[in-house]
C-alpha cells in the first residue's frame, strides 16, 4: 500500500547487504547519499551539519576491509539528530549563543552505531531547546516536511524524519520527551520507536549548559531510532540498547488489542481518525481482536496534568513556571510517586491487553507557525483549540515510561498518517513486531 512514499532507496540492512556482497563499496554508498542530500535538501533543509569529507575518509578506510559479524551496518551512511554529540561537530541545540560549541567526543549512541560499521554524514535539524513540534531555529533555519515543504516535519527530531522519508539516508537516531520521534514519524511517513525509559543511554546528549556534567537520562526523555521498515528499526534498537531486550512471543492474531482513539483532553481530527479507523477495519477483518474500551485505562485527564507538570519541571530543570511559582524538592518526589502509580496502572492494563493502538498526534502535519507554542492555536474538526493540548497523545506513553512503535498506516490527501503501537515497559521488541504484522496485514 502506498502511503505517499517518497523514495525507493534501500533501507539500512539492504544497503549493508549490497556492500557486503561487493555490489558497491562503502565510498560509493557514502557518495550516493551525499549526492542525494545535495540534490534534495535545498527546500527541505534537514541535514544542517555536514561532515562529508570525514565520512568519505572513513568510507575509504573501510574499502579494503570485510565486515565482521559485529558490524551489521558496515559502510551504511546515516545521520543523527543535532543534539547528539559527534566529536568535532557542533552541538548547539538550535541556540545562537552555543553555535560555536564543538563536541569533544561521541555520544554513546553514536559510538555504538560507528562500532556497528555505520558512517555518520552529519546531523539533522531541531527546534531551539528541542521544545516544539516544528524544527526551526535561528542557527540552522527551518526544516520543511518532504511531502509539503510549507508544513512542519514535526519536532523536535523533525530533521531526522525528513532525511529518512526523503531517501537522503536509510536511518537516523533521535530523542523524545513530548512526541519528538513519534510526531515526526507520523508527519513524514516513516517508522520509529519511542523506547522504554532507560533502555537506550543518552550519554552525550546534554544541553550545552550541562555539557560534560553527566546530566543525561533525565526524567521522561528517551533516545530512539528512525527507519523506513521494521527490520531496520529492530536492528538499530538491538545495537543501541543498554539493557537486555525482552523478546516478542505472541503473534498479533493471538494478541489482545485495545484501540484508544479518544482522549478527554485532546480530540483527534477526522484527517487522523479516518485512516486509523480504516486500518482497524482491515485488521479486524484479518482476525485481530480489537476492544474499543476498558475500565483499566487510567484517568487520562489527570495523567495529562501530571505529565505536563513533570515535563515543564524537567525541561526547565526546576525553573520558575509561567505563573512565577517554582517546584520544591518535595513537589518533585511527590510527582515521582504519582508517576510510579500511573506506571503500575498501565502495567495492570497490560495484564489484560498485549498492545494499545492510538494516534501519535491528533493532527497531521500543520503549516509552519512562528507563534509561541504557549499561544499557538490548532483547529481540530473546525474547532479552534490550544495547541498545548496536543501533547496529551505523547504523554499517554511518555509519563508511564512505555515503549511505542510508530508506523505509517495511511494518508489524508498528500499527508501521511501514523499509528502508535504501545506495549508494556521493556516490551519494545514486541511493539516493533506487532507493527511489522500490522504493516503486512495492511499491505505495506
Structure description:
There is one protein chain. This protein is an alpha+beta fold and 444 residues long. It folds into 2 domains: 12-240, Amidase signature (AS) enzymes, CATH 3.90.1300.10; 252-442, Amidase signature (AS) enzymes. Helices cover 34% and strands 15% of the residues. The chain contains 12 helices and 15 strands. It has helices at 12-20, 26-44, 52-62, 108-115, 158-165, 182-188, 230-240, 270-285, 300-316, 329-349, 392-398, 428-442, and strands at residues 47-50, 77-81, 119-124, 136-137, 141-142, 172-176, 191-194, 222-227, 257-259, 290-291, 355-358, 377-380, 383-386, 404-412, 415-422. The strands form 4 sheets. An 8-stranded mixed sheet has the order 6-8-7-14-15-11-9-10, sandwiched between helices. The protein is globular and about 60 Å long.
Sum up the structure in keywords.
444 residues; alpha+beta; Amidase signature (AS) enzymes; 2 domains; eight-stranded mixed beta sheet; three-stranded mixed beta sheet; 12 helices; 15 strands; 15% strand
Helices, by number, come to: 12
- Largest sheet, spatial ordering of strands: 6-8-7-14-15-11-9-10
CATH class of the largest domain: Alpha Beta
Any idea what the CATH architecture of the largest domain is?
Answer: Alpha-Beta Complex
Radius of gyration: 20 Å
Amino acid at each position: 500500500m502506498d502511503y505517499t512514499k517518497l523514495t525507493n532507496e534501500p533501507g539500512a540492512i539492504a544497503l549493508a547487504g549490497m556492500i557486503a556482497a561487493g555490489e558497491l563499496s562503502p565510498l560509493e554508498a557514502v557518495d550516493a547519499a551525499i549526492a542525494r542530500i545535495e540534490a534534495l535538501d535545498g527546500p527541505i533543509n534537514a541535514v544542517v551539519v555536514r561532515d562529508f569529507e570525514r565520512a568519505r575518509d572513513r568510507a575509504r578506510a573501510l574499502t579494503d576491509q570485510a565486515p565482521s559479524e559485529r558490524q551489521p551496518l558496515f559502510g551504511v551512511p546515516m545521520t543523527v539528530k543535532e543534539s547528539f554529540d559527534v566529536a568535532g561537530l557542533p552541538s548547539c541545540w538550535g541556540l545562537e549563543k552555543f553555535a560555536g560549541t564543538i563536541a569533544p567526543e561521541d555520544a554513546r549512541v553514536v559510538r555504538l552505531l560507528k562500532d556497528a560499521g555505520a558512517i555518520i554524514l552529519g546531523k539533522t535539524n531541531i527546534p531551539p531547546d528541542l521544545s516544539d513540534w516544528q524544527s526551526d531555529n535561528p542557527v540552522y533555519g527551518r526544516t520543511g516536511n518532504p511531502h509539503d515543504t510549507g508544513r512542519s516535519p514535526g519536532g523536535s527530531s523533525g530533521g531526522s524524519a525528513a532525511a529518512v522519508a526523503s531517501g537522503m539516508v536509510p536511518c537516523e537516531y533521535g530523542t523524545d520527551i513530548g512526541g519528538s520521534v513519534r510526531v515526526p514519524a507520523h508527519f513524514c511517513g516513516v517508522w520509529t520507536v519511542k523506547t522504554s525509559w532507560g533502555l537506550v543511554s543518552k550519554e552525550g546528549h546534554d544541553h550545552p549548559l550541562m555539557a560534560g556534567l553527566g546530566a543525561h537520562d533525565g526524567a521522561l526523555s528517551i533516545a530512539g531510532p528512525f527507519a523506513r521498515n521494521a527490520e531496520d528499526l529492530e536492528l538499530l534498537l538491538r545495537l543501541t540498547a543498554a539493557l537486555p531486550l525482552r523478546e516478542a512471543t505472541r503473534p498479533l492474531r493471538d494478541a489482545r488489542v485495545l484501540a484508544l482513539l479518544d482522549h478527554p483532553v485532546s480530540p483527534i481530527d477526522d484527517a487522523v481518525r479516518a485512516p486509523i479507523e480504516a486500518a482497524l477495519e482491515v485488521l479486524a477483518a484479518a482476525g485481530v481482536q480489537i476492544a474499543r474500551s476498558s475500565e483499566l485505562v487510567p484517568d487520562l485527564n489527570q495523567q495529562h496534568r501530571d505529565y505536563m507538570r513533570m515535563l515543564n519541571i524537567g525541561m526547565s530543570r526546576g525553573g520558575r513556571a509561567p505563573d512565577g511559582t517554582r517546584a520544591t524538592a518535595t513537589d518533585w518526589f511527590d510527582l515521582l510517586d504519582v508517576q510510579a502509580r500511573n506506571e503500575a496502572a498501565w502495567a495492570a492494563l497490560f495484564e489484560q491487553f498485549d498492545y494499545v493502538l492510538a494516534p501519535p498526534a491528533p493532527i497531521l502535519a500543520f503549516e509552519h507557525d512562528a507563534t509561541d507554542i504557549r499561544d499557538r492555536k490548532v483547529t481540530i474538526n473546525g474547532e479552534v483549540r490550544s495547541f498545548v493540548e496536543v501533547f496529551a497523545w505523547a504523554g499517554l506513553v511518555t509519563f508511564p515510561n512505555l515503549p511505542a512503535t510508530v508506523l505509517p498506516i495511511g494518508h489524508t490527501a498528500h499527508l501521511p498518517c501514523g499509528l502508535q503501537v504501545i506495549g508494556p515497559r521493556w516490551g519494545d521488541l514486541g511493539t516493533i513486531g506487532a507493527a511489522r504484522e500490522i504493516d503486512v496485514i495492511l499491505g505495506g
